[in-house]
Amino acid sequence: MHEPPRDLADPKTLLLDYLDYYRVVVGRKVVGLAPAELGRSHLPSGWTPLELLKHLVYMEERWVRWGFAAEPVPHPWGDQDDDGRWQVRPEETVDALLAAMDLAGARTREIASRAALDDPAAVGGRFTTAAECPTLGWILFHILQEYARHAGHLDVARELIDGSVGE
Predict the structure, then answer these.
(1) Contact residues for 86 (Cβ-Cβ < 8 A; gap 6+)
(2) Per-residue confidence band for 165, with pLDDT thresholds at 50, 70 and 90
(3) What does pLDDT average to over the chain?
(4) Which of 30, 77, 110, 128 is packed most tightly, with the most Cβ within 10 A?
(5) CATH code of residue 54
């Protein structure tokens, strides 16, 4: 998958298409890594590629389902332990987390299709008052920068693991 077309001008389509693009980029960074490498940190901060992947899944769910749509989410902070550090359970696999990321992306598109970029998030999920509710546009842009930033982190980690660079 390549970046969205350069003549694309609709802001919502541009945001959603770039989110799809970065999900693919993130997937490419973790696919092919041995399980030992997925669960091992190569950076002083201590996160592993699998932990970062799980974080992205939960981050998107927190902002869109629980945040914008105010849907009940059983464990919105399920990517973190009690100290706020990313964690992955032994039974969680790269394939399952990639499938969950794809599902989160489909759900984001579904929710966004029913709203305008300037619509505020609903009160009742992540946000308890109207004053703290960001717009859909703000949320999608925030998610996009999370994916882009963490794709860069995974790029560095992958280069340290096996020398692989690029998209």
Answers:
(1) 47, 48, 51, 52, 54, 55, 79, 80
(2) confident
(3) 96
(4) 30
(5) 1.20.120.450
